[in-house]
Structure formats: C-alpha cells, structure tokens
Amino acid sequence: MTNIRIRAVDVYHAKKQVDNTVYFEHFQKQGKDITNFLHIMGRNKRYVIDNQEENTNTMAIEAANRVLKKAELEGKDIDMIVFSSQVPEVTVPTNAMFLHHAIQAKKGTVIFDMNANCAGMTIAVEQASRYMTSNPHVHTALVVGSDYLSLVADPNDAMTYANFGDAASAVILEKTEEETGFIDAMFEVDSSNRNNILFPEKGLAQTIKAGERAESMRWLPFDGTMSLPYTYDMFETILERNQLTIEDVDVFCLSQFAKVNIDKIQERFDIPEEKIIYVGDEYGYTGTSSPFIALHEGIETGRIKRGDLALFWTIGGGHEFITMLFRY
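Request: output the structure for the sequence above.
Response:
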C-alpha cells in the first residue's frame, strides 16, 4: 500500500528577535499593561522582519532551500509545490510561481497557492497527501507555509502587535511503501465567527474603490477558549475512528497561538509534558507554519523520532479547525 511520509522539515525565521520589553514599553505609552496578556499567550520573544528585503516569499524560499538540502534533493526532483500563506506577497501570479523559479523546479510541476489562514499549512499537507495517493505521477511534494504577520499587525492592538512573529516552514512529502506517514484528518467549521478577524477590514473591493489603505488586520476581541470543546471532540473522534487512544500519541504539534489553550488541552487529556512541543515563547505566533515549526523543534531536539505518532491541531480565522494524525 502506498503511503505518504514526511522526508524532511525545516524552518526559516526573520533575523531580528525582539523580547517582551519592547512591547511592554510600547503599550505603557498608551496606558495599557499587557503583562497578563503576554503571560496567557505564552510570549517571551518573537522574530520580526525589520528590513525592506525580507517578506513572505523570501522566507518561504529560504525554508524551501533548507529543506531540499536536508533531504538531499534538488528542485527538479519535486513534482508538486503547495504554498500556504494568509499574507501573500502577491495575488497574481501565484506565490508558488516564485518558489518554483527559485528552486529551479521542472516545467511539469503541479503548483498552486492556498489560503486557509492559520490552518493553511496543516490543511496543505493533508490535501497534498491525499492528492499524491491518487496521482501516479506525483511522487514528491514540497509544502511551504510562510506568513509575514507583523506586516499587518495593529500597533494599537496587543493581540496582533505584541503576539505575531514572522517565519516559514517547509516540508518534503514523498511516497513510500512503508507503514508510516499520513493517517487521517478531520475538520470542524464555525462560520458564524467569519467577521471577527478581517483583512482588509472592509474587503478588497471597497478598500480599493474608496482609495483607502489596508494597513492592519481587524481583530475583534473574542474568547479563544471557545475552540476547546470542538478540539476535545475532534481528538476523541479521530482517535476512535483509527482505533487509537490518547496514550498512543507520542507527540502533539499544536497551534502555537495561545499557551493557555495548549495548557487546557494538556490538562483535559492528562498529556505528559514531554509530549507537548511549545515554541511560541521563542518564535511568537507565526500563523500557518506554527505546528510545523513545533514539529521541526521536536525533531531537532530528539523529542520526535522516526515512527512516532504525531497529532497536529490548529485553527484558522472564521473559524475552521483541522486535526491530523501523521506517523513520522
């Protein structure tokens, strides 16, 4: 039976790292104390772009080159490129086109962008895995998630300005006959929250027609723990339908959006600390790439080994949730 496994994963982040002091001082000038907020979110440092050269695409290209080198592959070896971002550098052509050119991929490569916000890269890996199993001509895929989130952060809103970081992650997927790789994934969508997070706030058409600028993301306050009942049900359902238990999971690569959510998931399922990978205190919240930056961290530190069962979970604006089982 043909399965889809992760051959390699790598990461690139912005060069500049900023600690909480900068944000404490920034919001103190506005009469705001964000100490408790940063504690709840689990932030200490974050990487942010502070130059004219770097952007979503440059980070993606660097992550892709790193993972190709790690996998001992060249661009010509890639049959499919999927690029995930919610802050695309361009809308025409696809950002995958620039990635294709940068790695010198072959002309017959399947390429496309996808945007599922913060859930994007996890969904891209799921979609690529399922597509690869049905297409006999696609043997190797490059999936890249990259978000320049600080670009659209609101200096008056701690949720975006003090929370976001800029980074990319790249994964090589390949076909294998071994009993490993992609297992299953499931989704949950609550579109009643579709107006909570918006960029551009007024929509592209109205912004352009009014001659306005869309400078920052609109983020209405809402209770982030609203996602947890969905999450608990999804974990239980996907494990049950694959004849697994929570104890069978070796590592949890979860959204790095808020440490409080991870803590509640850990408490709900009595998950040992060593099975939780958390990088949000170093990277900030990197959006689409965050579960795979956690995966990379786990592999690099030896906490994740070949054959380990990983459970991925993340959430995109609106809201949409994905939970995925993958044996590394």
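The first strand starts at residue 3 and ends at 13.
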